[in-house]
Design brief:
The protein is mostly helical. Helix 2 packs antiparallel against helix 3. The two termini are 32 Å apart. It has one domain. The longest helix has 35 residues.
Length: 128
């Protein structure tokens, strides 16, 4: 799978296994498994942190970039620069968190998605 297809699918917030079930049930609330096929999105306790790391890395890059642009094109004080970079970073974290969890879920699927722990339980029935 190429990068553009991978990103488009992860931006859709749909199940990486079947493409039908939703990853989220509200903006910041992620489902534990697909309601359509039963695929477990993040079966390990540590799987949550991958999305957090992606989010913080991107937010840090955006905050540093915003600070760099501010220094390049405006004559501002250090205090104003710190406030602007901090606010930009916080806004980026809030905006990117759901997307980064979706990207990480897809990354897990394509690296180890067919392992036993991700499969639905034997008693799983769609819609229940």
């Amino acid at each position: 799978m190429n990068l553009s297809r991978f990103l488009l699918r992860s931006f859709s917030f749909r199940c990486p296994h079947c493409g039908v079930g939703r990853l989220t049930h509200r903006l910041y609330g992620f489902n534990h498994h697909c309601e359509h096929c039963g695929y477990a999105y993040l079966p390990d306790d540590g799987d949550f942190w991958g999305g957090v790391v992606i989010c913080y890395a991107l937010a840090g890059i955006i905050g540093i970039g915003a600070g760099g642009l501010l220094v390049s094109f405006a004559d501002v004080s250090v205090q104003a620069l710190i406030y602007a970079a901090t606010l930009t970073t916080v806004a980026a974290v809030l905006a990117l968190f759901p997307l980064s969890k979706s990207v990480y879920t897809y990354l897990l699927y394509y690296t180890r998605g067919h392992e036993e722990e991700y499969r639905p339980p034997a008693d799983f029935h769609p819609g229940k």
